[in-house]
Amino acid sequence: MNLYGVAEIMCKAQIGCFILMGISVSLVACRSPTSSLFSSAPSKAPTVIAASPSTAQPIEYKTYTLARSVVHTISIPPQSQVLVTPAVSGTVEPVGKLAQRYGAIAAINGGYFDPENQQSISPVTLQGNAIAKPEDNQRLMSNPNLLPYLDKILNRSEFRRYQCGKVVQYDITRRQTIPRADCQLQDSLGAGPQLLPNATLAEEGFLEIRDQKVIRDPLGVNQPNARSAIGITRNNTIIWVMVAQKPEDPNNSGMTIPELTNFMKTLGIEKAMNLDGGSSASLHYQGKTLYGKLNESGKPIGRSIKSALLIQPIKKPEN
Fold first, then answer.
1. pLDDT per position as a tens digit, 221-236
2. Backbone angles phi, psi at 29, to 5 degrees
């Protein structure tokens, strides 16, 4: 099993991780070319306003059968009459159970967590409240092997939803990025690293190379594996990606991180973030759960996770 993103909790302990992250997607694109989401730099985050029933577009599920993988995607147009929100389990549970408990249309695994203490390693914010913080995980914060990387671990990428007046804005940015003064952070889900427009593996503590030797690589960057990711296109469509291994060759299938990045480019994605992967990679849609990681016999490995992203229908206000 790949130590997805946090082989960090214990130097040699297996650590799978997940967290979920949030977005509202029942909304109509409305990008402002001159506005900046953050005070420090311009943002390419999509801006959206509520869609009317006459302009609503459905979410779209697709499967791509490639040489070394089967890729499942869900596209959520800005005009969709749905919301994407994070959900966090009190313990850990399969992505399908999280989806069923919240009545979700679909769910995908999220960020990283420590399977030993079932505490999150990735931050999660829901409706403005921090519901998961890596600083609360003492096995992370007190691990001497991770001390050189803690600053990077605590400032990894996250998917955000803002409310800027009457306008909703989404972005993928680093945790310590300060929002614009007129925007309030509503939901966020951390994971990482950022894949597009630029990979931030070293900056987020996922990769260290010294004297041309790999010192740290918990993601197995150049090894094929099951993967999950989220991205935003130029027209503000949000796309979930889950890469599954092939039953006929489970030990040499899936995607490397560069392959995942290149595949997401073919979908028109301009900003992308890696989610937890390996045996955590899972997608639930229309009552069926798909798993990315396979065992030696080519059978799916169904693993419980800490958090997930959910697609939920917008609740109409009561009269």
1. 999 999 999 999 998 8
2. -65, 145
Round to whole Å and give the CA distance between 143 and 104: 37
**β-bridge partners, 271:** 232
| Structure-block tokens of residue 174 | 């680093």
Distance linking the first and last C-alpha atoms of the chain: 51
User: Can you name the residues that pair with 268 across neighbouring β-strands?
Assistant: none
Is residue 15 assigned to a domain? no
Is it true that the peptide bond before 197 is cis, omega within 30 degrees of 0?
yes
Distance between CA atoms of residues 299 and 296, nearest Å: 7
SS3 call for 67: coil
**Token pair of 17 as six digits:** 């991780």
Say what the pTM is. Answer: 0.82
Domain count, the chain: 1
Burial classification of residue 240, based on how many CB atoms lie within 10 Å of its CB (0-12 exposed, 13-18 middle, 19 or more buried): buried
Q: Give the domain range for residue 167.
A: 23-313
User: Can you tell me the mean pLDDT for 37-50?
Assistant: 37
**Which residue's entry shows tokens 């992250």?**
21
